[in-house]
Specification:
Length: 254
């Protein structure tokens, strides 16, 4: 039985998820079939409903299953879903040299109200040019979205507007080329989130499935803001890899 192969060590929900994933790979639960109900899984593994639900969230994060209220949990594939896009950065130049440009959905002027100012950590009433766009996999029109991005460009650079409709690279990289400026610092924050109803529909992902919210502040010389972006990345579609190196300053030789 499935629970006979449960491993030792690590959180119980993860071990249950691994056991179910192994069963899916073996073909015990073929693609298109349904996993046992939560109650049945509770009896199989001797676990609480909370633990079983956490295990199912883990399986959804791997892209193996999808859950819908009233319909149970359906197996999507036998092997975990691999990221559709990988971004590897060692410098600002590499970071700005994106290979898949954003496609515009909307471009308009906005003024930061109290809520937006708090989200962007800028002053109330600041003017921006808002670019909302999506990044799609080059695999074809039926491929799922990789990201949804809101980019708030400082109003002093709003002359970039016509270039936003035919991007061939990143917004910041385009601004560097158009205005002859240089991005000197990028501050990045990552926050794990789950898809609400609206975002689940946008990404064709299960409601409650994990995602990553990434906020970035792009600075020119000093603390001059070029743009502030807010991007959502569904689990399993994008992989970021950054390399950090230790400074040799102050390290004595042997």
């Amino acid at each position: 039985m499935v629970h006979d192969s449960i491993t030792t060590g690590g959180p119980l929900f993860r071990r249950i998820a691994d056991s179910l994933a192994d069963a899916i790979v073996r073909g015990d639960y073929p693609a298109g079939s349904r996993l046992p109900s939560e109650f049945a899984l509770m009896r199989m593994f001797g676990a609480s409903r909370f633990t079983i639900r956490e295990a199912l969230v883990d399986l959804r994060a791997r892209g193996l299953v999808a859950s819908r209220r009233g319909s149970g949990t359906t197996v999507l594939r036998q092997t975990p879903q691999t990221p559709k896009f990988t971004a590897i950065s060692r410098s600002i130049d590499e970071f700005l040299a994106t290979t898949i440009p954003l496609q515009p959905l909307e471009v308009r002027d906005v003024i930061a109200d109290e809520a937006l100012a708090a989200e962007l950590r800028c002053e109330f009433g600041r003017q921006f040019l808002l670019f909302q766009g999506v990044r799609k996999s080059p695999g074809g029109p039926d491929e799922p979205l990789l990201t949804l991005t809101d980019a708030y460009i400082a109003a002093s650079f709003s002359a970039i507007r016509p270039y936003l409709f035919e991007l061939t690279g990143s917004i910041a990289g385009t601004a560097e080329r158009v205005f002859g400026i240089r991005v000197r610092k990028i501050v990045e924050e990552m926050e794990p989130i789950v898809h609400d109803d609206e975002m689940a529909a946008v990404f064709d992902a299960p409601e409650g499935s994990p995602a990553m919210l990434v906020r970035r502040w792009y600075y020119l010389d000093g603390e001059t803001i070029l743009l502030i972006s807010r991007s959502i990345y569904p689990k399993g579609r994008v992989l970021f890899r950054n390399e950090l190196r230790r400074s040799e300053i102050g390290v004595s030789g042997s």
